[in-house]
Amino acid sequence: MGVNAPIGVFDSGVGGLTVAREIMRQLPDERMVYFGDTARLPYGTKSKETVIRFSRQIVRFLKTKNVKAIVVACNTATAQALEELRKESDIPVIGVIDAAARVASTVTRNDRIGVVGTTGTIESGMYTRVLKEYNPRVQVYGKACPLLVSLVEEGWLHDPVTEEVISRYLKDLEYKSIDTLILGCTHYPLLRSAFRKVAGEDVTLVNPAYEVAVELKEILDEKKLSCDGEVDQAGKKYEFFVSDAAEKFCDFANSILPYDIERVQQINIEDFD
Amino acid sequence: MGVNAPIGVFDSGVGGLTVAREIMRQLPDERMVYFGDTARLPYGTKSKETVIRFSRQIVRFLKTKNVKAIVVACNTATAQALEELRKESDIPVIGVIDAAARVASTVTRNDRIGVVGTTGTIESGMYTRVLKEYNPRVQVYGKACPLLVSLVEEGWLHDPVTEEVISRYLKDLEYKSIDTLILGCTHYPLLRSAFRKVAGEDVTLVNPAYEVAVELKEILDEKKLSCDGEVDQAGKKYEFFVSDAAEKFCDFANSILPYDIERVQQINIEDFD
Questions:
Q1: Same structural domain, A16 and A36
Q2: Which positions in this protein are listed as binding substrate (chains A, B) (predicted)?
Q3: What is the side-by-side order of every strand in the sheet holding A204-206?
Q4: Engineered SS bond to A99: which of A130, A215, B1, B73, CB 3.0-4.6 Å?
Q5: Is residue A2 a part of any domain in this protein?
Q6: Would an 8 Å CB–CB cutoff place B106 in contact with chain A?
């Protein structure tokens, strides 16, 4: 495995494509292998133990593709499984939480930070823990928003119903006078304008998908793992794998990514147990 | 296996508990083993092939409990897998679609029937096929409502947002002048009053959970498999198994069932492959 090996990226489904998109933008020369666990999504409602088991299977699969680094592009999997995956791995494993927490703890002026995400992410308390490592003074207010993923997948991105739901969810956080809000689920960047509208201009929105791409670039540079640009990329630059329903994945991917993907391969991820 | 063997009931998660509840009401002497595939829910977005594989594993598990009949308490699994499961099984396997279709095709006066359900159920066209078998003249209008399961699980059962979402979904059906609406997802009976409010008094709502319990009773009677009431039921009348997060399942079950369940056992369903 050399510097021109691909980066492995995985998520429970399509949400991680917002991370893949940022990596494509910020590291345009890197190759990527993406896996979406569409047969078993969502992870947000599953236990830590199950999320670890699923994530291990995926890491095993990605390693068969000789990846040089792995990005856990799923907040739930980062919250529940990142520590375990890191212990077991000889290549860098990066999650979506760390970089976002670092940025949020820096940009807040009143040390009051809100985090929205799936039930699993919020209940894990992972954002709170990492935010307090960066800045022990911060108060962190988490709010689980289980409806938002379905709203994104329904395509109601700019819709009064979606705004009403977000407004309902943010009500609690409003009373806490937060000045920074982490969009702690990979689907949520697609609701950025609705969040902006409801939260107002005074709240800084932090997008973990953007921040993790920045962190990935730093780590690759530091470990001298950045692509040297000499790779033969004909048709193989980006590869996409899913555990179910490749066609639907393709439709959603093409609505998010800057180019149309030609091929999504379906695999049985349970074979990697 | 005798007449006092339990009935096996399964669903992708908690939705099938509305079916379990009806069986408890209508067949109060029968024992039951319930399995909820909480590690892999929802099934509604998964392919036919995957739903069949998951359902087969569950049937294998239920057979280790010596069930005398199996109720597929999940519309998606019924739509995608019932035929296969029946072919492979030596005991009665009953799905949630058939009985509801029979009733709907009888009660409609203008032969225009609407069906709401998950994307998987609606796209399978299973309701349409079965409805037309009972009454070839019916026009069937399906509408996938992916947001409703999340709204139920969020507990927003009597909520203006839920009514607005239902109203949005029913808009298409309204133009079709349906007089009968099948609530084709096991979560939906919990939204019955919201559906009633939006659809109005002139539309007959058909609840598959209720109808399948009626059908089960008929089949057990016909095959002389009904419980003779001499079973020792101390503590073992109803057993609940899940593939993940037993505690959350318990909370939801206790909000639906007529009694509080004491114990939910977690198993690794992939072991039954």
A1: yes
A2: 11-12, 43-44, 75-76, 186-187
A3: A139-144, A112-117, A180-183, A204-206
A4: A215
A5: no
A6: no
Total domain count, chain A: 2
Inspect the interface and report whether the beta carbons of A154 and B146 lie closer than 8 Å.
yes
Q: Does residue A122 lie within any of the structural domains?
A: yes
Residue B1 belongs to some domain of the structure: no
B41: which chain A residues are within 8 Å (Cβ-Cβ)? 45
pLDDT in tens, B89-107: 999 999 999 999 999 999 9
Q: Is B89 inside a domain boundary?
A: yes
Do A81 and A102 share a domain, yes or no?
no
* B159 secondary structure, DSSP code: -
In the numeric block, which tokens belong to residue A257? 């990514």
Both A235 and A261 in one domain: the answer is yes
Domain boundary (A163, A184, A208) is at A208
Distances in whole angstroms, Cα of residue B12 to Cα of each of A191, B37, B39, B44, B185: 28, 4, 9, 9, 11
CB A226 within 8 A of CB A220: yes
Residue B109: Cβ within 10 Å count: 8
CB within 8 Å: A146 and B150: yes
- What's the average pLDDT block by block, 10 residues per block, for chain A (273 residues)? 92 94 95 95 85 97 97 93 96 96 97 93 91 96 94 92 97 92 95 95 96 97 89 73 90 89 93 92
The 10s digit of each residue's pLDDT in B115-148 is 999 887 898 898 999 999 999 999 999 999 999 9
Q: Are residues A264 and A229 in the same domain?
A: yes
Residues 121-160 of A with CB under 8 A from B: 146-147, 149-151, 153-154
A91, A102: one domain:
no
What was the ipTM of the complex prediction?
0.77
Say if residues A200 and A173 touch (Cβ distance below 8 Å): no
Q: Is B127 exposed, middle or buried (0-12, 13-18, 19+ CB in 10 A)?
A: buried
Domain enclosing residue B22, as ranges: 7-95+210-272
